[in-house]
Write a structure and sequence with these properties.
This protein has 14 helices and 15 strands. By secondary structure, the chain is α/β, with parallel strands linked by helices. The chain folds into two domains: 17-44 and 287-396, Aspartate Aminotransferase, domain 1 (Alpha-Beta Complex), CATH 3.90.1150; 60-285, 3-Layer(aba) Sandwich (Aspartate Aminotransferase, domain 2), CATH 3.40.640. The structure holds pyridoxal-5'-phosphate.
């Protein structure tokens, strides 16, 4: 095999948020971390090589991304997602979460409402409330094991006075849906009609399983392009989160100026030199690595499903169409959020993201597991959960 995703690489002592801070953040000890969304795999060799070469140059002054950077993004999205992005639409961002905060500041006013679809990536809610805006929830519906959007409810929410913007998670973290063109058209038409700007967080767009295609929201039609800002980043796809690099697609000239003003107010003028270098190398050379990664992740997903079906009764896997995050339904075990949290941390000693942080009640009784790790690590985590549940339910027997 050209890329060895089975290799367990020790990340402790590298300042890894996932590994070095898990015990402190989850108040546990010896926790096996499968929570925050980065991968326990090395980035593609071409990316590492590009960073080493750049480091060897030895001068790290202010650096503006050049044509190779724009070209890399444009070619990647044209090839992988059949979306033609024009270079003038692109703006840098120091990460997608910073971008979401900046966009909320740029395009809404204090007191306005911003729509999200819970259960959803919790920094969305923080970007809204920390900036003095109100979270307006358009909850997803879970029907026969599959989540879908509730567009009737969205229409009502979009008519709420002060509703200005929606943060769309596409593909969706944590439920793993890759929204269909129809679903996106439904959402986009409502937003267009009601004057709601769509901020499409498409950070997981490259990570879709076989037979599933991501549709960039802004690629659907010109009106959607003009009524949206799309957040892109190589950081999930190629495991570059620590380099804090992202790009925004903003087709409207006035809107671009609005974003730039907000960047300037914070003195955010320059992208990180290594971030731009890594983005360019990843989008230029990373396709074979990504294809191999997706195969490996599909194997991990299959392993997880079979393991749970055989050994962990009462837990249901919500089948993801994309992302390396899997939403596990523990509601069959009839435990409240606190009991489930204690079971994971104290008994199983695994750090997963608890469902309720993605919105409550929508996430109550769920846990999100990150399967972007060597299979041996995933197996160890699942065995720990199996053992914890077995001993708990044995104890509970009279
Ligand atoms: C939907 C979504 N958006 C954004 C991010 C983080 O983006 P960044 O690290 O560029 O701020 C994540 C990470 O998990 C995510 O899942």
């Amino acid at each position: 095999m050209k890329y060895d995703f089975d290799r367990v690489i020790d990340r402790t002592g590298t300042g890894s948020f996932k590994w070095d801070l898990a015990d402190a953040l989850f108040h546990g000890s010896g926790l096996l971390p499968l929570w925050v969304a980065d991968m326990d795999f090395e980035s593609p060799p071409e990316v590492i090589e590009a960073l080493v070469m750049r480091a060897r140059h030895g001068i790290f002054g202010y650096t503006a991304p050049g044509p190779a950077y724009h070209d890399a993004i444009i070619k990647w999205f044209r090839k992988r997602h059949r979306w033609k992005i024009r270079p003038e639409w692109l703006r840098f961002a120091p990460g997608v979460v910073p971008a979401l905060n900046l966009l909320v500041q740029a395009f809404t006013a204090p007191g306005d409402s911003v729509i999200v679809q819970m259960p959803v990536y919790y920094p969305f809610m923080r970007a809204i409330s920390l900036n003095g805006r109100t979270v307006l929830n358009n909850p997803l519906k879970l029907e026969k094991g599959r989540y879908r959007m509730d567009l009737e409810d969205l229409e009502r929410k979009a008519m709420t006075p002060g509703a200005r913007l929606i943060i769309l998670c596409s593909p969706h973290n944590p439920v793993g849906r890759v929204w269909t063109r129809d679903e996106l058209e439904g959402l986009g038409s409502i937003c267009l009609k009601r004057g709601i700007l769509v901020v499409a967080d498409e950070i997981h767009c490259d990570l879709t399983y076989q037979g599933v295609r991501h549709v960039p929201f802004a690629s659907i039609k010109e009106e959607f392009l003009m009524n949206s800002v799309t957040c892109l980043s190589p950081s999930k796809t190629f495991n570059l989160a620590g380099l804090q690099t992202a790009a925004l697609v903003i087709a409207g000239g006035e809107r671009r100026a609005g974003y730039e003003t907000t960047l300037s107010r914070l003195g955010l003028t320059w992208p990180n030199v290594f971030g731009s270098e890594a983005l360019t190398a990843a989008y230029t050379h990373g396709a074979p690595w990504l294809d191999a990664l997706i195969d490996y992740l599909a194997g991990n997903l299959e392993f997880l499903k079979q393991f749970i079906a055989r050994n962990i009764p009462g837990v249901t896997v919500i089948e993801p169409e994309g992302t390396y995050l899997v939403w596990l339904d523990f509601r069959g075990l009839d435990m409240d959020n606190n009991a489930l949290k204690r079971l994971m941390i104290e008994d199983a000693r695994v750090a997963l993201d608890h469902g309720f942080i993605f919105g409550s009640p929508e996430g109550d009784g769920f846990e999100r597991i990150n399967i972007a790790c060597p299979r041996a690590t995933l197996e160890e985590a699942l065995r720990r959960i199996e053992r914890a549940l077995k001993s708990r339910f044995q104890e509970a027997k009279p």
